[in-house]
Amino acid sequence: MTARAEQRVSHRRRTARKRAVIAGVSALGITGAAIVTTTMLSTAGAASAWPADTGGKPVSKTVPVSGVYDGGMKKFYGTGALGGDGQDEGQDPIFELADGATLKNVVIGTPAADGVHCKGSCTLQNVWWLDVGEDAASFKGKSSSAQYKVIGGGAKKADDKVLQFNGAGTLTVSGFRVEDFGKLVRSCGNCKTQYKRTIVLKDIDVVAPGKSLVGINTNYGDTATLSQIRIQGDSKKKIKTCTRFQGNNSGKEPKDLGSGPDGKYCRFSASDITYK
């Protein structure tokens, strides 16, 4: 057989194989859009497992972040001056984000010090806390237009608060997982300077034990909107969903005004919370 003839035969074979594949896909009724949709559906919802880190990185001094910081899934942990992991107030954070900064793909190990501080609007994407210290993250912007976004990630082993909201603006937490915790989000109940705070929790996986999902101060106009909340291991429903407080700026313990949806401050219905 000549080289030209061999080329014609090879071309016919490739064409036949290609047609057979196309015919098979058509017969099954599978389209590219359907394949993409299936893939997206399979990854929907908060993460069900904790990620493996890509190596440890000790931090002895707070890491300032402006712009975007991608940690590459390394595990950062405090050492030296940042070697504390207790509940004492006033600890320094592992990361401090400037207004508009993004921190992503980070695992925070132990000691965790005071986790992450946001000085203004910020995004925390795929950030994981293995053993929360004082708080996992604190949001401290002073502008009512500040936007704090926690996208994906998770936290566990928090004796008290996971996300501490001291500043003004809106905090949105989505696709997050929390286990063995005190409070997932708390609007500061007794800060010297108080603000109206808006909190949105959506697509959250909660694993007991835990005390409260969110605490807000109604006298300052705070609101909390909850949706797609999945709670595991709490058959007796001990975890409070949304707790209303009368906050103050004097440092005193805020007064507990009750919990559950009320249509005004705690905005959700029974169908927004599911128990497994």
TrEMBL record:
It catalyses: Eliminative cleavage of (1->4)-alpha-D-galacturonan to give oligosaccharides with 4-deoxy-alpha-D-galact-4-enuronosyl groups at their non-reducing ends. Gene3D superfamilies: Single-stranded right-handed beta-helix, Pectin lyase-like (2.160.20.10). It is found in: Secreted. GO terms for molecular function: pectate lyase activity. The keyword Nucleotide-binding does not apply. Pfam families: Pectate_lyase (PF03211). Signal peptide: none annotated. Its main location: secreted. It comes from the Bacteria. Its EC number is 4.2.2.2. Its cofactor is Ca(2+). GO terms for biological process: pectin catabolic process. Keywords: Calcium, Lyase, Secreted, Signal. It is an enzyme of class 4 (lyase). Belongs to the polysaccharide lyase 3 family. Catalyzes the depolymerization of both polygalacturonate and pectins of methyl esterification degree from 22 to 89%, with an endo mode of action. In contrast to the majority of pectate lyases, displays high activity on highly methylated pectins. This is Pectate lyase. It comes from Streptomyces griseomycini. The lineage of its organism: Bacteria, Bacillati, Actinomycetota, Actinomycetes, Kitasatosporales.
